[in-house]
Amino acid sequence: MHWYTMYSTQLLKGTFQTIILQVLHQHKRMYGYEITQKVKVLSDNEIVVTEGSLYPILHKMEEMGWVTAERVSIGNRTRRYYSITQSGSSSLKLKVDEFERFARTMKNIFYPKPA
Amino acid sequence: MRKLTKKQVRLIELDLTKRDIHYPPLKEDLLDHICTEVETKMAEGMKFQEAHQHALSRFLPNELKHIHSKTISALTSFSLLKSYFQTAYRNLLKRSVNSFINVSGLTVSMAICILIFIFIRYESSFDTQHPDKTIYRLTSRTISDSGHIENTAFTGAPWGPALVEEFPELLDAGRIMKYRLDVLVTNRSSNTSFYESDLIWGDQQLLAFFKIDLITGNQETALSQPNRVVISEEIAKKYFGNTDPMGKILTYNNEVDLVVSGVMSAMPEKMHFGADLICSFSTLKSFWRIIDNWTIRYYHTYLKVRENADIENIEAQFPDFFERKIGDGWNERRSAFLQKVIDIHLTAGTSNELKPGTNKQYLYILVSVAIIILILACANFINLNIARSIKRTKEMGIRKVMGGMKSDLVLQFVLESGVLTFLSLVLSLGLAQLLLPFFNELLSKELTIFGEFDGLLIVYVLLIVILVSVLTGIYSAISTGDPGIVHSLKGKSTERLGGNSIGDGLMVFQFVICTTLIISIGVIKLQQHYLQTKDLGYSPEQLLMISTNNVETTELSLLRTNLLSIPEVSNVSITSHKLAGDQPYYSSYVFSASGISGDTLGLGRLHVDEGFIDTYDLRLVAGRDYDPAISTDTTSFLVNEKTLEILGVTPEQALDMTIEYLTQGENGRYPRRGKIIGVLANFHLESMHQEIDGLVMDIQPPRSHFVACKLSNRDVNASVISKIESEVKVFASDMPIEYFFLKDLYGNLYSNERKLDVLISIASGVVVIIAFMGLFGLVSQLAAYKKSEIGVRKVLGASVLSILLMFAKKYIRIILISLLVAFPLSYYCMNSWLLNYPYRIDFPLLLMFAAGLLLMLFSILTIVFVVQKAASVNPITVLKED
């Protein structure tokens, strides 16, 4: 963990969906714990997706048809593997585009080009 | 990485259960999540306990619960429900054997209920196509000396029109006459003739009364004139091929020409009468000379009543009306009443119906059996569910202790039984469809399950599914979640079971039903057997009957002589009726003894010949048989004992009496008078449902319709039959010969009842099986609960036998209580059923006790089977588990 604090939840809230979709987009299928770990690694421990954020979003996205879950029995319990669907991928594209425009706009506001 | 053991996973799952995480997919996710975390920590060297603590400590006290509510609040209730159903389905698959037993019981019961439902739907929908509620049938009633009520659909031909004339409330009348034998119909131009069984004579009014729509022809006048006939399309094709039948001629019995005045489509099967040809009633006047006779009842009368008329008031005026019109022929034992047309099919015991009806009582029995089957199946379903959930009792206990919500537990149960019930329903529809061909063959019907769309059926079925699921779910949840919690945690639920009043009550109920049904079926069977084997008063054995309709009256005696010359034929008799289930003519007879004018009685009338007594093996009580050598015998009478009883005379007095009555001859009506020469012991002419009435017999060759040949050889072979046939053919020219054995005809008399008996027996068999499955389930459940008690007892030295006795005692008490209820119940029900029969068995008490004993025996065997298995397990194994 870095000496500075992690991003505030307030800031991240709107991006969790995009992050989870993106992670799923890069891998064939993942289970919940794996997703949290992956995000941790990718963000260099800057972003932590807690169970409290992850699962409500996953189940909502499953209902919307952006991801599908596959139940696999592993030993004494059942693991749910999530993977991204076609419509999930297109939503992801829209979200990434939107985020990039947003970032550009923010940059323009913070660092205005000299007139 | 080492995986967690089953026990460790269960422990973590319990944490989630405790925190009320019940949305199945989320529960799976979180369980996997925490397990993986624990496994990771353990791989780093932590002990399970420590890793478990660590994983949980990351969550704030209510955090997990919060995640749960956050997840489900974001989802629609539809996907929530869907997921609960999926989980229920998966749980059931996991316990497939148990689920199979559960489903199969319910499936079979539902299939039986569906079949019964479609049968009853069929039977109760007769005469619903012509919904005119103001049409009534006039039915006449006679009360016999013994108080037996006999209703007959026969009325006199002049009654209807005269009633309409006199009563302003009666708007119109329509009559039907149907000759009791098949009649010959000929198309002379093409020389085609057939015997028709469905030819009726009817008034024009019938077309409107019963919504008989003509395809061609004038709806208002087709039958209003004499010598008109309306035919079905099928008949049109049969006689006229593809040519237009309108205006063409059909000849009735080679004597009456009828002009085709209309073509109708086939009459619906579900009507109390059917007809292929309807000839105009007014035609009868020209050749059927008794049409004006008020006392001859041979016609069916329908009356259109003014709307909202007081039916009872009209009926009350009938006696006075008939006394005025008929006089002596009418007395206080007779009456007539108006019957709703829609009730005709399901009113049993009215004689001379145009189509055989169905006894409403049988339908009631069937409905009750269906309801009982369903209740028992549900009861079993519940019991087996409970037996299954014993395994989960510990979990339930913990949840209760932790203060877990009961509602989601109930929901889970309701959904699980809902899935099972629905599955059973789908399977039962398939099973019913599969059984339908056999069912139809059994009943000689062509019923369909899905033939007609039936909203009612769907509503009923859905109601059943919902009811069964909710009841089962709630009952299961209550019974596994009620006060014995702490005991269930310890695995000891004996106290609760000792007083499981719902279960015991259910079982008493099952046994009462079972016993009552077994006794009832036994009584029905015995009564049927009695009807089949009761002494008829004559011997129907070896009697070959041939119709003599086409033989000239003058040639009958020659035919008799020729038939007697066949070596295999020992006796021959020619009569007006066939003796199995036929309906005699009725006439008014004046009985008088030397000089004193005597009583007038309406009695049955049968025409016989000199060979009658010998051929049918009848018993002569007094007097003598006809003697061909005595010329006056052709006008003498034989009577049966019942006639003497009605007259109140001794056989000796009777032999002094003279009888006079009016009969129809070639030249109109003339009186016949003669002496009584013999008294015959009573014999059954009608079916056993009718009480034997007084009967007067005389010789009247023109009214001969059947010749009976008594065959001396026991094995009847085709050559004898063809010899007899060819003898008859000599006199009957080219007409087709119809023959049958009287014994077969007699056997067919009760075939309708036998079919229903079979149906009820099968359904009852299912009830008994289901009840025993229930007993099996309950005993298994108790044995499972008492596993440790059995173990302890065995360790302390109890024998298997003493353990058996311990179990048996409880159930024997239950069975004894059930028998105490079932005996009077079945006695009451079946005795009142028997009272419907004028000839019946006494209530078989022996059968009642035998049934009770049998049931007891079977129950004990079931208990022995289950408990013996539980008691022979090594006690150490059982006790270790605790």
How would you explain this protein's 3D organization?
- The complex is a heterodimer of chains A (115) and B (882).
- Chain A is an alpha+beta fold and 115 residues long.
- Chain A has a single domain, classed as Winged helix-like DNA-binding domain superfamily/Winged helix DNA-binding domain (Arc Repressor Mutant, subunit A, Orthogonal Bundle).
- Chain A has helices at residues 9-12, 16-26, 32-42, 51-64, 86-110; strands at 30-31, 67-74, 77-84.
- In chain A, strand 2 (67-74) and strand 3 form a beta hairpin.
- The mean pLDDT of chain A is 86.
- In chain B, helix 25 (751-785) packs parallel to helix 28.
- In chain B, the strands form three sheets. Chain B has a 15-stranded mixed beta sheet that branches.
- Helix content of chain B is 50%, strand content 18%.
- Chain B is elongated, with a radius of gyration of 38 Å.
- In chain B, a hairpin with a 3-residue loop joins strand 10 and strand 11.
- Chain B contains 29 helices and 26 strands.
- Chain B is α+β, with helices and mostly antiparallel strands and 882 residues long.
- At the A-B interface, helix 4, strand 2 and strand 3 of A face helix 1, helix 2 and helix 4 of B.
Overall domain count of chain A: 1
Total helices of chain B: the number is 29
Q: Roughly how many Å apart are the termini of chain B?
A: 33 Å
Radius of gyration of chain B: 38 Å
User: Roughly how much helix do the residues of chain B carry, as a percent range?
Assistant: 40-55%
> In CATH terms, what is the fold-level topology of chain A?
Arc Repressor Mutant, subunit A
The radius of gyration of chain A is 16 Å
The chain-level structural class of chain A is alpha+beta
Through-space gap between termini of chain A: 40 Å
